[in-house]
Design a protein that fits this description.
Shape: globular
Strand order of the largest sheet: 2-1-5-6-7-4-3
CATH topology: Pnp Oxidase, Chain A
Number of strands: 7
Mean pLDDT: 85
Strand content: 25-35%
CATH superfamily: Electron Transport, Fmn-binding Protein, Chain A
Structural class: alpha+beta
Number of domains: 1
């Protein structure tokens, strides 16, 4: 993983208009290539920051869905943010979690059942501070998108 000292420079590039314009079309293909090459053991964002694969149930279709996301590990689980390359719309996986909060994540080769909870308004500033320690300037995506980004805590689900 990229040393923490280098994250600000990479984070700044990821917020440029160029990256926001080409990222949505280039990154999925790069991710598929990396998945094939590594047998699914490596997530492209995982080369830079902690990352996971989120497995949800489609909000409308009810079908299984998966997406690879950067995350912010925390004592109670993992934060994930619906930045969607700073686009105006929320990514579909956030609607999936709102409709079906029971999900699972894969980290490395381990699958973990989780329960998703939207971070409440009263905790957003505190959580943003933690997210920006992980990925400097991350809140710039919220300003650029013109919408309030959905932030979820993915907490390990209790067995039983």
């Amino acid at each position: 993983m990229l040393p923490r000292a280098l994250r600000p420079a990479v984070a700044a590039f990821s917020r440029t208009r160029l990256f926001r314009r080409v990222g949505p079309s280039v990154m999925p293909g790069f991710e598929r290539m990396l998945t094939r090459a590594t047998g699914g053991r490596v997530i492209s964002s995982g080369l830079v920051v902690p990352s996971l694969e989120l497995h949800t149930t489609g909000a409308k279709s009810g079908q299984p869905r998966s997406v690879k996301l950067m995350c912010c590990p925390t004592r109670s689980g993992w934060y994930v943010t619906g930045s969607n390359f700073a686009r105006e719309s929320h990514p579909a996986w956030t609607a999936n979690l709102l409709a079906h909060p029971g999900a699972s994540i894969t980290i490395g080769l381990n699958e973990v059942p989780v329960r998703a909870a939207l971070v409440p308004e009263v905790r957003r500033e505190e959580v943003w501070a933690e997210l920006e320690q992980n990925w400097p300037g991350y809140r710039g995506y919220e300003r650029s998108s013109g919408r309030e980004l959905r932030i979820f805590l993915l907490a390990p689900a209790l067995a039983g």
